[in-house]
Inverse folding.
């Protein structure tokens, strides 16, 4: 039995015999700080508590202790420095310092390592995060996690924070989105409270910054973040950041920041494969006590491919529908319920012409370059990518794709698609590029 | 329990203990004060579990005993009582009857057995200081500590005991007040502590109602002040106080001797024209004196000239007027010295003819 478990057991025992007010006043912030074969040492927050426990509750504590661990005979008390709270404002029963309370409320307790499902797509990021949470500031500092929307970046990052807190409850963990960082910085500047701002951000043990790409173009904030980063890094405090792309690919961000982001460890999260998606769905269904046929889960996992958030959304939608109608869904029903989720309306209105424009814009060529009969390398590659995307996204027939590109033969198109598919497997950078292009296509 | 004592004695005791009670604590008894007969005197105690206070008042004990009653209620009641003599008696374990000439009262209380034990400090006296001197020193420093408690260290008051000197300092990182007090004899060792500012404020109030010596004791993370018939015990703040001495400049370029009251008037006038920013410009010129000026878009502008003896260079800087007034309002001297370097370096205020006090204030950089 650990010290904590033992103390919990004793407290549970004492709680029965004491009034609530007495119990919370005298036993909050107490713990067992040492345990030997002969006895235990109880850490208390102040001299008042020490006196009181020693003189009033000593017998009760001893009795409760003997009921659990008969061999211990001695109980001692020692003042340990409390987590600081001003007495006047101390209205709550649980004592945590004001700063700490503010920091930690942003951590969602749902996001832990145990609820994170590991697949080949996120193995590296998971392993790195786990290592970081075990030894914050010692390995991989900073940790930079990047990947697409809804793939679990925030989950992993918050898990680092939660785990670090679990290990050391006194650790100061601060989770912010880069938007909140910006807003707080701006209002600190306006109110002349930059010192306070600095003292908050530079006195943490673990700083978690979500969606760092939103710092793009905000030069003042970038500078402040740069200094914050340096201050933390120099003191071996852990920094974890997430972004939807590689540091290098974030536009309008200063080089010195980019080089710092790349300093520690960069881990990517890809879209989950079928097995991982299925595992996630099963875990979610179990978590919510939904009883669903495996083939239906299979169907959802097969049709929703890129985004875990959508996966969860589809599941929820299905469950709500079933609860409202009090039925168990059949596969046919599922298809009709999920039709909107699976082909979201935004996908409509995308044309081959638009894809060609966006691809050519991405690679800094003109749409005419893609269409004309040139076999220069800088045109061929974008052209093949454009063909690939059109085929995959719009499912246009091969001959008509050929027609878009200046009347090329359908075998040329087949060759292009085969080639891109092969290169994607060999080079993950290309997949990233294509994902970025797809994001742009559906952004507008 | 049955006690007879004068209203004024009781009032004095209640003044000391009634403020230090728990606020909003679920444990009812923390809102109460403990009345107890103790070797021929009446002992009053209260605590908020950070600070504890005991004080003894004289009276006639007719029957031994103890009881706790709500602090606010009994304090306000006794303050309103017109008669001179009061008889306090516990009816049972939970009711206190207060009898005086024409007023008959019984107050609901709680059993003394639930009242927290105020820790004892058993060590020997660490150091003794004169209470008047100590009180003056606190008056000149304690308001300079940081109000907000994000940095617990500087929210408290720093005290360093070195030989027969006590160095008291408070800072909020923008200003610093430091005062040295002569102890009555050498301290039993060298020690540096940070005392919560609430404790020091209470101590200051207690010191205003008497004369004599203050005995200071330390034990396991606690400090005890003994003064007159009162004991004040408090936790200490755990932490390292910043090494503030390095920011005190070694020398200044300009020194100004100025009448304190004139400077206060000028600053208060200027303050009206700096409602948002608190920024007041202070300019000093040899042969010309001090110019205090402020202006704002909304209010208008103001300028005041004060005669002063300026030695050294011409100088100017912008200050938060509150920071200047805080210091000036708490100095007893009529003449003060204002010392400056330039518009970006710390300035100092010292009382004329006394070298145990220095106040450092950072100018505002525009």
């Amino acid at each position: 039995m650990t010290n904590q478990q033992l103390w919990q057991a004793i407290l549970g025992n004492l709680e029965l015999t004491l009034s609530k007010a007495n119990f919370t006043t005298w036993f909050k912030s107490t713990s067992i700080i040492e345990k030997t074969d002969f006895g235990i040492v109880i850490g208390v927050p102040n001299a008042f508590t020490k006196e009181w426990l020693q003189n009033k509750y000593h017998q009760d504590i001893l009795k409760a202790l003997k009921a659990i661990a008969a061999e211990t005979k001695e109980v001692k008390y020692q003042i340990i420095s409390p987590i600081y709270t001003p007495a006047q404002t101390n209205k709550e029963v649980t004592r945590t310092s004001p700063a700490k309370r503010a920091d930690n409320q942003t951590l969602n307790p749902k996001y832990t390592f145990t609820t994170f499902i590991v697949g080949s797509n996120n193995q590296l990021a998971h392993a790195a995060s786990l290592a970081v949470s075990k030894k914050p500031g010692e390995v991989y500092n900073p940790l930079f996690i990047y990947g697409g929307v809804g793939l679990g970046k925030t989950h992993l990052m918050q898990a680092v924070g939660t785990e670090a807190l679990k290990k050391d409850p006194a650790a100061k963990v601060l989770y912010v989105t880069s938007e909140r960082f910006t807003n707080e910085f701006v209002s600190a500047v306006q109110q002349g409270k930059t010192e306070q701002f600095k003292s908050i951000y530079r006195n943490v043990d673990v700083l978690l910054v979500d969606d760092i790409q939103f710092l793009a173009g905000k030069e003042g904030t970038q500078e402040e973040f740069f200094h914050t980063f340096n201050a933390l890094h120099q003191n071996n405090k852990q920094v974890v950041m997430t972004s939807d792309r590689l540091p290098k690919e974030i536009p309008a961000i200063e080089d010195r920041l980019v080089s710092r982001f790349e300093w520690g460890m960069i881990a990517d999260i890809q879209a989950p494969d079928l097995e991982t998606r299925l595992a996630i769905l099963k875990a979610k269904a179990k978590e919510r006590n939904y009883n669903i046929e495996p083939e239906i889960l299979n169907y959802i996992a097969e049709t929703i491919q890129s985004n875990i958030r959508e996966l969860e959304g589809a599941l929820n939608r299905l469950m709500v529908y079933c609860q409202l109608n009090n039925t168990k869904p059949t596969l046919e029903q599922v298809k009709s319920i999920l039709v909107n989720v699976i082909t979201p309306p935004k996908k409509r209105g995308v044309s081959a012409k638009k894809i060609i424009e966006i691809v050519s814009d991405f690679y800094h060529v003109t749409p005419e370059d893609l269409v004309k009969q040139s076999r220069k390398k800088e045109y061929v590659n974008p052209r093949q990518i454009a063909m690939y995307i059109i085929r995959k996204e719009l499912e246009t027939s091969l001959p008509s794709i050929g027609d878009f590109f200046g009347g090329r033969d359908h075998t040329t198109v087949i060759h292009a698609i085969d080639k891109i598919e092969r290169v994607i497997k060999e080079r993950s950078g290309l997949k990233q590029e294509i994902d970025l292009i797809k994001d742009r296509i559906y952004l507008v | 329990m049955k006690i007879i004592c004068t209203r004024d004695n009781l009032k004095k005791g209640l003044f000391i203990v009634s403020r230090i009670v728990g606020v909003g604590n679920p444990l009812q008894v923390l809102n109460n004060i403990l009345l107890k007969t103790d070797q021929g005197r009446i002992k009053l105690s209260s605590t908020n579990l950070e600070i504890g206070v005991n004080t003894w008042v004289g009276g006639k004990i007719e029957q031994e005993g103890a009881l706790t009653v709500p602090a606010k209620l009994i304090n306000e009641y006794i303050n309103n009582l017109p008669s001179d003599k009061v008889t306090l008696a516990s009816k049972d374990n939970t009711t206190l009857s207060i009898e005086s000439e024409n007023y008959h009262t019984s107050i609901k209380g709680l059993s003394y057995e639930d009242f927290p034990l105020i820790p004892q400090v058993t060590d020997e006296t660490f150091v003794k200081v004169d209470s008047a001197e100590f009180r003056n020193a606190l008056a000149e420093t304690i308001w300079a500590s940081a109000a907000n408690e994000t940095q617990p260290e500087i929210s408290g008051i720093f005290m360093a005991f070195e030989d027969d000197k006590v160095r008291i300092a408070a800072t909020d990182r923008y200003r610093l007040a430091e005062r040295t007090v002569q102890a009555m004899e050498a301290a039993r060792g060298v020690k540096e502590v940070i005392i919560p500012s609430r404790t020091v404020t209470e101590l200051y109030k207690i010191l205003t109602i008497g004369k004599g010596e203050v005995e200071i004791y330390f034990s396991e993370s606690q400090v005890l002040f003994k003064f007159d018939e009162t004991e004040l015990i408090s936790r200490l703040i755990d932490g390292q106080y910043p090494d503030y001495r390095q920011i005190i400049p070694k020398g200044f370029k300009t020194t100004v001797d100025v009448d304190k009251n004139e400077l206060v008037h000028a600053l208060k006038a200027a303050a009206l024209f700096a409602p948002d920013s608190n920024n007041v410009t202070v300019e000093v010129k040899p042969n010309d004196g001090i110019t205090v000026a402020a202006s704002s878009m909304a209010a208008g502008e103001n300028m005041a000239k004060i005669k002063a003896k300026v030695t050294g260079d011409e100088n100017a800087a912008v200050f938060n007027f509150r920071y200047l007034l805080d210091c000036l309002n708490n100095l007893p001297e009529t003449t003060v010295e204002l010392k400056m370097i330039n518009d970006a370096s710390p300035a100092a205020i010292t009382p004329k003819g006394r070298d145990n006090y220095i106040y450092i204030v950072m100018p505002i950089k525009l």
Notes: Residues 47-68 of chain A form the longest helix (22 residues).
